[in-house]
Amino acid sequence: MKKEPRNETTSGAAPAEKRAAPATKAAEATKGAEATKAAPAKKTASAERAAPATKAAQAKTTGPAKTTGAAKKASAAKKTSAAQKTPRAGKAAAAVVNTAPLRKKPLIAPKKATAAVKAAPVKTVVKPSEEESRTALVRRARRINRELAEVFPYAHPELDFENPFQLVVATVLSAQTTDLRVNQTTPALFAKYPTPEDLAAANPEEVEEILRPTGFFRAKTKSVMGLSKALVEDFGGEVPGRLEDLVKLPGVGRKTAFVVLGNAFGRPGITVDTHFQRLVRRWRWTEETDPDKIEAAVGALFPKSDWTDLSHHVIWHGRRICHARKPACGACPIAPLCPAYGEGETDPEKAKKLLKYEKGGLPGQRLKPPQAYLDAGGRPAPPLGAG
C-alpha cells in the first residue's frame, strides 16, 4: 500500500505547539503564585468561626503572649539571682541587676547608744596616786591626817614607859609581837633591872626567862643587854638624843630611833612599822616597799612638825580599823578619801564588828564606831581600859 505523503505544515506546527505549552503552564503557575502572595485567600465564615478556638488551643500550648505583673516580678527575681550567681553575665543580666530594687540594710545603732551605763559607786573614791597630780596627792594626804586626828585625838605610843631608857628597850622588844604583850612583860624586867648598868650586868638566862612571852626571847635578850652595855660605855648610861647615835645601838634601827626621838625627846620623826607601810601603800601615798624610801616619800608630803603625830594616827588606824587581812571599810571615817575602799567589808553593820582595841584589854577586844572615842560633850574620851 502506498504511503501518504507527509503534511509538512501540520506536522511542523504540532511540535511547536507542544513546546509552547509547557512555557505557558510555567508562566501561569508563576502568575498564580504571585497572585497568591499579593492577595491572600479569603476566609470562609466557618474558618473565621474556628479561628478563636484554634488561637485558644495555641495559647494553651505555647503560653500567653503577654506576661502578667506577678510573672514579671518572678522573672526579674530569677534573672537577678542568676546574675548574682554568674559574675560574668552579659549586658542584659547586668541591666536586670541594676534595675532590680535594692534591699535596705537594717540600721545598727552606734556602740555609744547601746553601751550599758555603769552605776555610780556608793562611795566617792579618789584617783590612784599615779593618775593624780602632786598637788592633789599632798592635799589628799594632809586631809586624811586631819580626819584621823579628829578620830584619834589622843593617839600616843601604846608602849608603857617612864623614861627614854624604858622606851628604847620596850620598842626593841615590840618586834614580832603586840604592844600589849610587851606592856605585860616590861614591868617585871624594869623592876629587876631599872638602869642600863643593871641590865648590862644581868644574867642572860634570867633575862631570857622574863622575856620568853614576847617571842624570839634569846635574840631580844642579846639586843637589850647589848644596847644597855653600849649606853654605859659610850654615852655615860644616858640615851642619846640624836638619830646617828641611836642607830649605833644594838637592835636599834631608824624606826626605833624615831619612836624614841619623837616621844622621849620631842623631835619629829616618822615611824615606819608594818601598819604604817601597809596603809600608806593602800592610800597610794607611795609605791615604795623599802622602809627608808617610804619614810622619805611620806615625809615629803607633810611638814616636819607633823611627822610624829602622823605616825601615831596612821598606826592607830591600822590597828583598829584598817586591818591587814580584813579592813573595816564600812566603818572607816576616811573611806571617801581611800583608793583601796572595797578591799574589806563594806557593810556598815558587819564592819563595826571588825573594829578592835587592845589598850588595857584583851587582844582583839571589840569596840564601838570611831565616834565612841568622844564623850557626851564632844571632847576626847580616855582610852578604853586606861588607868
Automatic annotation (TrEMBL):
Domain HhH-GPD: 173-320
PROSITE patterns, sorted: ENDONUCLEASE_III_1 (PS00764), ENDONUCLEASE_III_2 (PS01155)
Reactions listed under catalytic activity: 2'-deoxyribonucleotide-(2'-deoxyribose 5'-phosphate)-2'-deoxyribonucleotide-DNA = a 3'-end 2'-deoxyribonucleotide-(2,3-dehydro-2,3-deoxyribose 5'-phosphate)-DNA + a 5'-end 5'-phospho-2'-deoxyribonucleoside-DNA + H(+)
Coiled coil: none
Stored InterPro entries: DNA_glycosylase, Endonuclease-III-like_CS2, Endonuclease3_FeS-loop_motif, Endouclease-III_FeS-bd_BS, HhH-GPD_domain, HhH_base_excis_C, HhH_motif, Nth
Keyword DNA-binding: yes
Entry keywords, A to Z: 4Fe-4S, DNA damage, DNA repair, DNA-binding, Endonuclease, Glycosidase, Hydrolase, Iron, Iron-sulfur, Lyase, Metal-binding, Nuclease
Single biological process term from Gene Ontology: base-excision repair, AP site formation
CDD domains (alphabetical): ENDO3c
PANTHER family cross-referenced by the UniProt entry: A/G-SPECIFIC ADENINE GLYCOSYLASE/ENDONUCLEASE III, ENDONUCLEASE III
Function noted in UniProt: DNA repair enzyme that has both DNA N-glycosylase activity and AP-lyase activity. The DNA N-glycosylase activity releases various damaged pyrimidines from DNA by cleaving the N-glycosidic bond, leaving an AP (apurinic/apyrimidinic) site. The AP-lyase activity cleaves the phosphodiester bond 3' to the AP site by a beta-elimination, leaving a 3'-terminal unsaturated sugar and a product with a terminal 5'-phosphate.
Family named by the database record: Belongs to the Nth/MutY family.
Protein name, UniProt field: Endonuclease III
The encoding gene: nth
